Amino acid sequence: MSMAYEEYMRQMVMPMRQELVQAGFQQLQTAEEVENFMESVEGTTLVVVNSVCGCAAGLARPAATEAVAETSDKPDHIVTVFAGQDKEATAKMREYFVGIEPSSPSMAILKGKEVVHFIPRHDIEGNSLEAIKDNLLIAFDNVK
Fold it and tell me: Which residues sit opposite 82 in a β-bridge?
C-alpha cells in the first residue's frame, strides 16, 4: 500500500480511536503492547475491539463508554485494539479469546486472561445502544 493511503487511514480513524481514549481506555497498538499487558494483568478487563463500521460508531463505542461511566462495578482495566488498523495487536489479543471467532467490533470481559463474557458483532449490530450497555452492566456486576 502507498504511504499516502496509510497516512490517510491513520488520519481517518483518529476520532474513532480518541472516542475510547478520552473515555479512559488504554490503546494497545502493537502485539508487544498486548502481550506485555496480558502477561501482567490481574483483575478484570474490558477489551473493546474497535472498528470503522457504523455499528462500532453508533453502538459499540457509545455503549462501552456509557457503561464504564455509569457503573460503580467498572472493570479494573479498560483497553482497546483497533481491527483493520493495528492488525498485529488485534491478532495477538484474539489469541487470548480462546474458542471465540474473530468479530469486530466486539467486546470481551476477562478475569485475568480468561474471557468470561463476550459480545460479538452480531449481538451489537441491530441491537439498541441501551441493550448493549445493559448487557455490559450486567456482565460487570456478575464478574466482580
Answer: 50
Which three cell numbers, joined as nine digits, stand for 120?
460479538
53 assigned to active site = yes
What's the alpha-carbon Rg for the chain, to the nearest Å? 14
Our CA angle for 34, 47, 142, nearest 5°, is 130
User: Is 30 annotated as catalytic?
Assistant: no
Per annotation, catalytic residue among 20, 28, 31, 55: 55
Cβ–Cβ under 8 Å, residues 122 and 58: no
Give strand pairing partners of 106.
49
Q: Give SS3 for 111.
A: strand
Confidence (pTM): 0.95
> Of the listed 53, 78, 124, 132, which one is catalytic?
53
Going by C-alpha positions, the residue among 47, 58, 54, 51 that lies closest to residue 136 is: 47
Q: For residue range 45-92, what is the model confidence (pLDDT) as tens digits?
A: 999 999 998 889 999 999 999 999 999 999 999 999 999 999 999 999
